[in-house]
Amino acid sequence: MAKKQVLGRGLGALLGGDLPDSAVPAQGGPPGEQVVSLPLTLIDPNRDQPRRSFDEEALKELARSIENVGVLQPVLVQQTGERYRLIAGERRFRAARLAGLTELPAIIRDFDEGRRLEVALIENLQRDDLNPLEEAMGIRGLMEQCGYTQEQAAARLGKSRPAIANLLRILTLHDKVQQMVQEGKLSAGHARALAALPDKEAQLRLANLCVAQGWSVRQMERICKQTLAGTPSAPKKVQRPQEFRELERMARSAFGTRASLEGSAERGRLILNYYSAEDLQRIWDVLEALGQNT
Question: Which residues contact 216 (CB under 8 A, 6 or more apart)?
Fold first, then answer.
């Protein structure tokens, strides 16, 4: 299997080379920067952590590795008063707690809001894939809190602008469809195809069918295109003149049957409905009487 291609800008590049992508031994650390041991009780999780779900089995596996060889790569934290906020290394932090550790090797850095969000997002993107919804939410948070445009976010994250736009479209999906993406029932490709549908109920209906029948992304794209092509635009409702409604009422009263007027003031037709020979005879009698009076 080919190795996953990482982002154009590595985490180390973003941090100016202070934290390389390869594991950093806890006793060493980057040149000129000290790795310290911090009590786990003083470290708070990152509230802006892009990842919303963690694989419990993967965490247990990492915890067993930590029990055997320790934490090989320090986490990245920012000091806030007497406590420390986790910036990168949420999985190591959680696994260390599972392993029963009381301290964790850490590098203390000071970040502004934008840099902190970038580091947290890129660390997750490169080391343990986020699901598409988590990635989209992380990018939106980065744009909102830092005031980035899609072009700026793309440049910071080493992605193309269309890739950023496609991810953000996932956030326009029906809430239940977004949940399917988060649970891994739908891929990013399925989500992008569904996002082209303006009708959220149609999105949900096709998403359920996709999960039940195991559609490929190509099948989903084709079905969404067919759905769009077969959706007629809603006809514009034309306001009928009051005189038309009055004329219909008079015709119903005169002929004793259903009457409807179609068309405009210049051109159209008056339709009289009959449902038996007696109805037709009554209409005949009325018309005959009107003719005799002229």
Answer: none
Residue type, 201: E
How many whole angstroms separate alpha carbon 86 and alpha carbon 79? 9
Structure tokens at 67: 């029990």
Those residues of the chain that have pLDDT short of 70 are: 1-33, 48-55, 112-114, 116-117, 120-130, 231-239, 293-294
pLDDT tens digits, residue range 16-68?
Answer: 333 333 333 334 444 446 788 899 999 988 776 656 566 678 788 888 888 88
Measured at the alpha carbon of residue 132, what is the angle toward residues 194 and 14, in degrees to the nearest 5?
Answer: 140
Strand order in the sheet with 43-44: 35-39, 103-108, 75-80, 83-88, 43-44
In angstroms, the CA 188 to CA 179 distance is 12
Which residues are part of the catalytic machinery?
Answer: 90
Instruction: Give the Cα separation of 213 and 205 in Å (integer).
Output: 12
The domains found in the chain, sorted by start residue, are: 11-130 (3.90.1530.10), 173-227 (no CATH), 243-292 (no CATH)
CB 19 within 8 A of CB 74: no
- Are 191 and 181 in contact, with CB atoms under 8 Å apart? yes
- CB burial class (10 A; 0-12, 13-18, 19+) of residue 91? buried
**DSSP string for 211-275:** HHHT--HHHHHHHHHHHHHT-PPPPPPPPPPHHHHHHHHHHHHHHSS-EEEEE-SSSEEEEE---
